[in-house]
Amino acid sequence: MNVRKILIVTVILVLALSVFATGCKAAPKLAEQQVLRFNLGTEPPQLNSTISTDVVSFNILRHTMEGLTRLDANQKPIPGMAEKWETSSDGLTWTFHLRDAKWSDGSAVTAQDFEYAWKTLLNPETASEYAYFAYFLKGGMEYNGGTGSADDVGVKATDAKTLVVTLSSPIGYFLDACSFGVMLPVKQSFYEQVGATEYGSDVDKMLFNGAFVMTTWNHEQNIVLKKNEGYWDAKSVYLQEVDMDMLTDTQAAFTKFLAGDYDLIGLANSDYVAQSEAQGFTTKTFSDGATFYLEFNLMDPAMANKNIRTAITYALDRQAYITKIVKDKSIPALAFVNPDIKGATASKTYRAEVGDLIKDNQTTEAQTLFQKGLTELGVSTVKVSIISDDGELAVARASALAESLTKNLGMEITVDSMPFKSRLEKMKNKEFQIVYAGWGPDYNDPMTFLDMFETGNGNNHTSYSSADYDKLLADARKETNTAKRYAIYKQMEQLLMTDLPIAPIFFRIRSYTTVDGLKEIHRGAFADLNWRGAYFEAS
């Protein structure tokens, strides 16, 4: 029996059924105006997909660019630039066949655009914090680490429409990964013409192949997207324009929503929920898959002390913090991997399988550990700074944590707030002691939370390094048995929550509301937010 051929036929049949189902869906009744307006919240640091790391940038890239796959309304991977693909029987070789699609300059999107982008991501000279994301490619880790060459990386355009990908080991989330922001295509001639340092820095420094094109980028003010009439599936895109402001003032943004200037607004806490509902709006709630935590810089003498880190972790009263400060439906985080991540079996999440791994609200034990840490450091106290974004909510939340730790441990803590872009830069350069941070999943597997703590990982801002952890990660990357791989994940998280380079605080649950008539806005853990198929319904 030819197993490879059966896999090919199965994939093509599924794609055909998907197309048939889409074609049978009745077209919506559209309002005359199809312009979506909302507050982006902050300036995207840049939009070079090979070096982007933040949710703001990925939100823009998700709609102006498209990878081999994209996530549908249910956050499942479906064909994007690739209209079909087949897989070898061992799961190591994937052959993607690209559809007819164009860049915003009218040139064709080719397989070479993907090969170039993925190798640029892995190129050591790019210094991408997300280079590790593509380590599943054969030779990817070696190339990025300086022991291999670009020619050995398992991605090859065999012709303009065919991309052959070779993995180092089979992974169940590969198609999900192909939709993620750092795996988007890049047109080599344009990239080299603009230059690596300028690409993605402004409207004229980018090309687009997604459902929308960017037409305006007034830095620190607003961004305007227009429907891409040349997009291969333009008939399924109903919005003609998307207008986004960059207000960091939560109350100012909410006031604009109530005044009719926005069509969608995040409700930052229960106070805004109450005000919104009093005005007749319906609250919608979802988990965005993010874990919020304190990130410790282990290069700092005080933060390098495990007893100090453990004391900080145990001293927090997470439920009280959520109730009094965060004021939403978020859940105390007593581990790192978010509950939205699936488990080894379909019946349970990973979090339910593994359970809690750290202690909460243990002030007495925390004080004992703190004093032990001070003794080990040979000091009577430590002065610590927490960096945070400069939005009012971020400052309030970081300040509340500082106040709580001062009260419970006697630490001297200050909060240093700054623009989002500046915080990311300080994290990258490890210019902090503690940072108030959040991490959302890139795909539905525990690896998306756990691999960034590998020694030297670009997103490992803590400088955490453990030979045992690195060994477990290497084992997990090559383990093909799901149950065994998840057992390794559990060991990794247990070690992480023992060494505590981070202190988890809460799993975020968010609330928002929209104007009447706005349909098909999708929000969730792996593609928040998604307005690709949104529209305003005719009244």
Account of the protein in words:
This protein has two domains: 3-7 and 28-243 and 515-536, Alpha-Beta Complex (Dipeptide-binding Protein, domain 1), CATH 3.90.76; 287-510, Dipeptide-binding Protein, domain 3 (Roll). It has helices at residues 3-24, 55-64, 111-122, 140-145, 174-177, 188-194, 250-258, 270-278, 306-315, 318-326, 350-354, 363-377, 392-409, 420-429, 447-450, 467-478, 482-499, and strands at residues 35-39, 69-71, 77-79, 82-87, 93-98, 155-159, 162-166, 212-218, 222-227, 241-245, 264-267, 284-296, 331-332, 383-389, 412-418, 434-439, 502-514, 518-519, 535-536. Helices cover 33% and strands 20% of the residues. It is built from 17 helices and 19 strands. The strands form five sheets. Strands 11, 12, 13, 14, 15, 16 and 17 form a seven-stranded mixed beta sheet that branches. It has a four-stranded mixed beta sheet with strand order 1-10-9-8, with no helix packed on it. It is an alpha+beta fold.
